[in-house]
Amino acid sequence: MSLSPQQVERYARHLVLKEIGGPGQQQLLRAKVLLIGAGGLGAPVALYLAAAGIGHIGIIDDDLVSLSNLQRQVLFTTKDVGAPKTKIAAERLTAINSDVTITEFPMRLTVENAAQVIADFDIIIDGCDNFPTRFLVNQTCHASGKTLISGAVGRFDGQVSVHRSKGGQSACYQCLVPAAPTDAQTCEQVGVVGALTGIMGSVMALECIKLLTNTGDSLLGRLLVWDGLSARSRTMALPADPGCAICG
Known about the structure:
The protein is 36% helix and 19% strand. The chain has helices at 5-10, 12-15, 21-30, 42-52, 85-96, 114-118, 131-144, 173-176, 187-190, 194-213, and strands at residues 32-36, 56-60, 101-105, 123-126, 147-154, 157-163, 222-227, 232-237. The chain has an 8-stranded mixed β-sheet, with helices on both faces. Helix 4 (42-52) packs parallel to helix 5 and helix 4 crosses helix 10 (194-213).
């Protein structure tokens, strides 16, 4: 595929990067990425991936926009309260970039539909806020050989990791979190700074772009932890667990 004059202008800042250039931008335009959740993490991920020219973005979320979302979910505005998140997200992302095709999945990911929903996408980005869904996404990605970018936030802290566990290329998510912590709390319970979701969501979008253009060192097999209160980050190895119930 060749870029149109309008695309050359739109993606000019990518095209001058030797790490992306024309071939990399064409890869982005051919890519299919699925977002699990259009919340605090999914919103900035979606905005940056649409702006980058990801050709096909799927969004699965069964929620409606609420007033309490607006502190961090930058896809939505006050007038969107009460509307389906996937519908508003599709409208906003298409307005940002008409090159992008949006597929809406206004439903909850379940054991019955997970494999079918995930099947058509190259990379799965999980920004959901509960462990049952995280585990389901991880298990489905492992079984289907999909690359999974996983992010989590709470209070002032965030983390991002990349998994491609089938065939032993990396640890899976449950090598990091084998089971839901008994004291696990949601952002609704402990709070979260809106700007933190923007930081971690941007990291997730960047990891996706790096993977699709085969550039840089991804977080595959590593975990990035960000402490927003001290403005410090650290990256650590994330080895596969031989005893993992999913990929061991």
